[in-house]
TrEMBL record, chains A, B:
Compartment(s) where it occurs, according to its Swiss-Prot or TrEMBL record: Cytoplasm
Top enzyme class: hydrolase
Main location: cytoplasm
Keywords, ordered alphabetically: Cytoplasm, Dipeptidase, Hydrolase, Protease, Serine protease
Organism of this sequence: Dictyobacter vulcani
Catalytic function, reaction form: Dipeptidase E catalyzes the hydrolysis of dipeptides Asp-|-Xaa. It does not act on peptides with N-terminal Glu, Asn or Gln, nor does it cleave isoaspartyl peptides
GO cellular component: cytoplasm
GO-annotated molecular function: dipeptidase activity; serine-type peptidase activity
Cell division keyword on record: no
EC number(s) stated in the UniProt entry for this protein: 3.4.13.21
Family: Belongs to the peptidase S51 family.
InterPro entries linked: Class_I_gatase-like (IPR029062), Peptidase_S51 (IPR005320)
Name by which UniProt lists this protein: dipeptidase E
Length: 244, 244
């Protein structure tokens, strides 16, 4: 079986209801599955967050169950067919995934094709080898920055272009990603709001409402349009902790 | 002897040369000291960064020496009278401070009043108990988020107000600090660009070109004007890893 990933930059696009920008992609991804297990750990109010996701996803004909409510988490992870990891704070999310010992079992079942993985924002960041390209504040400390490692490159969700005429002297998003590339030889895909990646086995496509910007060490950033086949990114070399 | 800290939100303020916004504060802080040891570890080009700081600080009548150029770092840390920790990436900075075993000796000499500490941006973040309120991307992984712990609260440098009319759906700076307060019961001072804190023993003052915004769990954020005595912040309770 091939693995199936759907990785959103964000769930809410300006002026639209949650996932309204991605209805067709969601229907295709959910296919004939009827239950979505939701990991609310990037948020602080698990019940409230799960209810929001129910409202957004149940019109697609699925039942949404918060993973925090199941009695046997490890057994549920072995039986589940669709997992959605929601956004919020990536550090809080990863620390909780570590404490719940979710990383290895989820990775095994996603890569073997038994469990579909859908992520948004922090949940998309978790699909990468590490959380090193998150935008979030390190409010708590996970043991390691290593994440689900479902793809061999890094994504920066909510990618933002520099604001013209800004007087702010802090780093732009591009500055930050360039700093990442000084320390790591790993491609980073800046996924603008409204866009997503869809992976089916060895096939990877960009889709959605916005172009994406790819950063690699030693080359100028490149822009890709929705619909672009990015499968070649799945075979790119990635080396962490190697200074430029 | 009392300790002496000068903690800048940033070194470059829009439209000004480095530290031009803070000439009087710098002169007062440097007093009759003639050598500033500079820690360039938040950057990637240590020599280039040190030269930039030389150009900015030597008009104040001091010699600037990059700590990366000294032959015996631990001895230098015992003899130095002024340390400046510069900005850049906070994760890279803290990982390097750990590897160089700088945290404990610097803290001991600063708190005893023998070593003056000046920080900017990431260097200001390092003066806090932890780096948990940085804006930076976690491009490398330090062993711990614990920092110099020279003050008992957290600072968010380059504090930015929400942009009006923004269509971006990512978290605002205030959202991120609220997430921090969900996990930690520790005050966070949002230090806007152009402002700084000056600590002399038990006295702490805000100064510079902008108001600062203080966030505490369970209360609305409060604004403070340059010149405000914030010494009471030095005796506030701070508890990390305690959910709201």
């Amino acid at each position: 079986m091939q693995d199936n990933l759907l990785l959103f930059s964000n769930s809410h696009t300006h002026g639209m209801r949650m996932f309204e920008h991605a209805r067709a992609a969601l229907s295709e991804f959910l296919a004939d599955h009827h239950t979505v297990y939701f990991a609310p750990y990037a948020g602080s109010d698990y019940d409230g967050y799960t209810n929001t996701i129910k409202t957004a996803l149940e019109p697609f004909g699925v039942t949404v169950i918060g993973l925090h409510t199941v009695s046997n988490l490890q057994q549920t992870l072995q039986d589940a067919e669709v997992l959605f990891v929601g956004g919020g704070n990536s550090f809080r999310l990863l620390k909780t995934l570590e404490q719940l010992e979710m990383l290895a079992p989820v990775r095994a079942r996603v890569t073997s094709g038994e469990l579909r993985y859908m992520g948004s924002s922090a949940g998309t960041n978790m699909s990468c080898p590490t959380m090193r390209t998150t935008n979030d504040m390190p409010i708590v400390q996970p043991e390691s920055f290593n994440a689900f490692n479902l793809i061999p490159f890094q994504i920066n969700p909510h990618y933002q272009d520099p604001l013209s005429n800004s007087t702010h002297m802090g780093e732009t998003r591009e500055d930050r990603i360039r700093e990442f590339l000084e320390e790591n030889d790993v491609p980073v895909l800046g996924l603008r709001e409204g866009s997503w990646l869809r992976k089916r086995g060895s096939q990877l496509h960009l889709d959605g409402l916005a172009d994406a910007r790819l950063f690699r060490r030693g080359t100028e950033p490149q822009e890709y349009k929705p619909g672009t086949d990015l499968s070649w990114l799945l075979t790119e070399k990635a080396t962490f902790d190697q200074k430029a």
